[in-house]
Design a protein that fits this description.
- It is built from eight helices and twelve strands.
- The protein is an alpha/beta fold and about 230 residues long.
- The protein has two domains: about 5-125, Rossmann fold (3-Layer(aba) Sandwich), CATH 3.40.50; about 125-230, Winged helix-like DNA-binding domain superfamily/Winged helix DNA-binding domain (Arc Repressor Mutant, subunit A).
- A five-stranded parallel beta sheet has the order 2-1-3-4-5, sandwiched between helices. Strands 6-7-8-9 form a four-stranded antiparallel beta sheet, covered by helices on one side. A three-stranded antiparallel beta sheet has the order 10-12-11.
- A hairpin with a 2-residue loop joins strand 6 (about 135) and strand 7 (about 140).
């Protein structure tokens, strides 16, 4: 089985060496980059399964790197930051980060987050698909191909956005609780991270808004959860 590849983007050499050495000991292949520009230059050749991306870097910061990356790639990204700032967390998630770690973090915490994100990506192939296509109002989802259209236009989602939207579509007409959605998509250890869910739902809505023909496709049940609406 091929080793999972992780790109580490951080301008602090000590952190990079420490993280890389420990990931290698768990049989990951790693590539270290000390700037955002270097990461964007090397990503295609390395083709990582996951990127650990530092927020505070000189020149191009982590937000800029993530913005550029998300214009052409849905590779999972865990943001690393020394600032325990809630606004940073939301901005990172809004730009398409999959998770967030505040420095200093323990190795156990890092490994848990890395494994959780990789497990979500692996799970996309393992999820039993009972039907290959779902049509809900203007939305058509081909679950076998992992593609979603609104009318004739295909909408591009990140892995997490797709997984969440597809799960809601598969349970259309049923309210799914915050805990159910978080446990199913992010993992049981994320069941209280409602912010992750809110931001991802907002991103999905933003992407489908102009194509939804004025229809409310995802309904919010405040304090409870969300539902994909029939018809």
């Amino acid at each position: 089985m091929n080793k999972k590849k992780i790109m580490i983007v951080d301008d602090e050499p000590k952190i990079v060496r420490f993280v890389a050495a420990n990931l290698k000991s768990l049989d990951f292949e790693t590539l270290a980059c000390q700037s955002g520009a270097e990461a964007l230059e090397k990503i295609e050749g390395f083709d990582p399964d996951l990127i650990l991306l530092d927020l505070m870097m000189p020149g191009m910061d982590g937000f800029d790197v993530l913005k550029r990356l998300r214009s052409y790639s849905s590779v999972p990204v865990i943001m690393l930051t020394a600032r325990s700032n809630g606004a940073d967390k939301v901005q990172g998630l809004n730009l398409g980060a999959d998770d967030y770690l505040t420095k200093p973090f323990s190795l156990d915490e890092l490994f848990a987050r890395v494994n959780a994100v990789l497990r979500r990506m692996d799970g996309r192939m393992a999820t039993p698909v009972t039907t290959s296509e779902i049509t809900l109002g203007p939305v058509t989802a081909n679950l076998a191909q992992r593609r979603i259209w609104l009318g004739d236009i295909e909408v591009k989602f990140t892995e997490t956005e797709y997984n969440l939207f597809a799960l809601l579509l598969q349970h259309a007409g049923k309210v799914m609780t915050h805990e159910q959605l978080l446990s199913e998509i992010w993992g049981s250890e994320y069941r209280d991270e409602v912010e992750y869910l809110r931001v991802t739902i907002a991103r999905i809505r933003q992407k489908i808004k102009s194509l939804a023909e004025g229809q409310e496709i995802i309904v919010t049940y405040p304090g409870v959860g969300y539902m994909a609406k029939h018809g």
